[in-house]
């Protein structure tokens, strides 16, 4: 994708607590690595497990320098590292990517025929933070779509797409990077690292 757009939307709804309005700043980091490098990642995750008082689904805290080590892998590809700040209890969304327009039918000379199709390729993330005495509560839904190849049709080819989703509810320790999960396909693994901290409006 040659063009990337970042769209941050804040939707009405949620809670306000006390006289000061509490906000949460969240950064999501997406990086692709080769499956062969994942053994290093697993070792890092074992070394940086969360303390017992924090809970999460498919989540592990990471050691200092983890992100730099991931970026140093020969086959690593940083897809995005967007940041967003939202009020506690409000829904916010991040969209990073672009639309691919393609044809499904072709003339004998290979020119496109019929109506064009459109598919979004990239990352869509929707988050809602919630109050937690243990850390920062976060409801997170992420969809990651990419082009995964082509399939032949008469007189042309049609793209094949891969779409993966993560939906989870976690409690994050403040300002500590944690791996929420990952997607695996075609010998590559896409990791999702999340870091959050509280701020005041």
* Helix and strand sequence: EEHEHEEEEEEEE
- Structural class by helix and strand composition: mainly beta
Give the termini distance in whole angstroms. Answer: 35 Å
| Rg, nearest Å | 20 Å
Helix content: under 10%
Give the mean pLDDT: 76
Looking at the structure, what is the overall shape?
A: flat
Count of helical stretches: 2
Low-confidence blocks of residues: 1-19, 50-58
The proportion of strand residues reads over 45%
How would you characterize the largest beta sheet?
Answer: 6 strands, antiparallel
Q: Report the count of strand segments.
A: 11
Quick take:
The protein is mainly beta.
Folded structure, characterized:
The structure is a single chain. With 201 residues, this protein is mostly beta strands. Helices cover 8% and strands 61% of the residues. It is built from two helices and eleven strands. The strands form two sheets. Strands 2, 3, 4, 5, 10 and 11 form a six-stranded antiparallel beta sheet that branches. A five-stranded antiparallel beta sheet has the order 1-6-7-8-9, with no helix packed on it. It is flat. The two termini are 35 Å apart. The N terminus is likely disordered.
Core attributes:
11 strands; mainly beta; 2 helices; 6-stranded antiparallel sheet; disordered N terminus; 8% helix; single chain; 5-stranded antiparallel sheet; 201 residues
Describe the secondary structure blueprint for this structure.
Blueprint: E1 5-11, E2 22-34, H1 38-47, E3 60-61, H2 66-72, E4 77-80, E5 83-87, E6 91-106, E7 112-130, E8 136-153, E9 156-172, E10 178-185, E11 188-200
């Amino acid at each position: 994708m040659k063009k990337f757009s970042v769209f941050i939307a804040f939707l009405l709804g949620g809670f306000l607590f006390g006289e000061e309005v509490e906000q949460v700043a969240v950064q999501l980091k997406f990086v692709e690595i080769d499956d062969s490098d994942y053994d290093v990642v697993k070792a890092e995750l074992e070394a940086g497990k969360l303390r017992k008082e924090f809970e999460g689904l498919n989540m592990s805290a990471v050691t200092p320098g983890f992100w730099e080590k991931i970026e140093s892998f020969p086959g690593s590809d940083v897809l995005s590292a967007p940041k967003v700040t939202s009020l506690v209890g409000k829904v916010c969304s991040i969209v990073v990517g672009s639309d691919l327009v393609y044809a499904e039918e072709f003339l004998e000379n290979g020119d496109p025929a019929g109506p064009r199709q459109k598919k979004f390729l990239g990352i869509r993330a929707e988050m809602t933070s919630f109050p937690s005495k243990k850390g920062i509560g976060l409801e997170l839904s992420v969809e990651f779509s990419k082009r995964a190849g082509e399939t032949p049709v008469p007189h042309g080819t049609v793209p094949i797409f891969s779409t993966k989703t993560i939906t989870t509810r976690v409690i994050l320790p403040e300002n500590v990077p944690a791996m929420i999960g990952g997607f695996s396909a075609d010998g590559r693994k896409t990791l999702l690292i999340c870091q959050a901290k509280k701020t005041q409006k």
